[in-house]
Amino acid sequence: MKPDNYHTLLERLEEFEEYEGHSRKSKRHQSFRPHKPKRLSDNDQKFVRTQGDSVGNFHFTYQAARFEEGWLLDSLGYFYEQRWISDVLRKVKGGKEASVYLCRSGEQVDAPLVAAKVYRPRMLRNLRDDHIYREGRIVLDEDGHEVHDVQMLHAIITRTNFGEQVRHQSWITHEFTTLQTLYEEGADVPRPYEMAHNAILMGYLGDETLAAPTLNEIDLDAGEAEPLFDRLLHNIDLMLGKERVHGDLSAYNVLYWDGDIALIDFPQVVSPHGNRNAYAIFERDITRLCEYFIGQGLSLHPRRLAADLWTAHGYRLTPEIHPSLLETDER
Ligand SMILES: Nc1ncnc2c1ncn2[C@@H]1O[C@H](COP(=O)(O)OP(=O)(O)O)[C@@H](O)[C@H]1O
Ligand SMILES: [Mg+2]
Q1: Residue 210 belongs to some domain of the structure
Q2: Range of 314's domain?
């Protein structure tokens, strides 16, 4: 095994074990307490229990390692109990902050397969510079409501354990509520179904054996690059209209399936208004996306494109916001 892989593996083991240590109380055969208030009435809940959908009966096809299994039961148990999913089939990808699993849908979903994005317990540790994204952004709780509680906000600033939990939750909620807003707007994003304390459930792109690749993994056919790029610009335009800048946009966060695309991975979205770095972040998004499409044969001017999209929405573009505008004659 290569040393790099070895260290990644060790780190993962450590993560899961640390997580297991935290969650020993919620082991599989003890009663499961979802971290999210149930939406079903008492009667409905009794019905669900008698149907045998308690998490104690949740046995999935995916052969998870022992520590991963505990983590999945805790993260996805709520979806199982509420019949959003009936099985976990396999891991689609272990990303840097989260792993995505292919699940068989439960009765609540009218598509056969769904994707569950489960956040890693330690994902915040990888996000030391998250203040750049958090600036001007409200803190959201797990029901999508803004957190006003002064003690909670203080806990975040002073980085107590509890504060870190609230921050972690806010990150996930921003991803889910952004998916909801953009999906309602008709943007090309996976359909959002439900959120739990550590995971979001959304539409899956791909089929049972093959998940949709991300753009960086494929070369487009001749003639395909231009309409796809226009489609992406349309989506970016919709996002700006809803006051959202992706913040981590690149060919790595666009899925491609059968000529269709879907933008994914929104936890770091920033507001074009409240964040001093918003334009720089936006321009970086456009530049990274253009890099891929230039590689696919298009001739593009990312900085000009970014500035035009930005100002078309009435957002300010001044040398104070973006000093490098003064230095360039690219426009
Ligand atoms: N809805 C989905 N359908 C199919 N695959 C998905 C879906 N969402 C994510 N993936 C896969 O999981 C990977 C990680 O998801 P992503 O949201 O980008 O998280 P990360 O922050 O780990 O990059 C993606 O690169 C993609 O391969
Ligand atoms: Mg990603």
Answers
A1: no
A2: 215-326
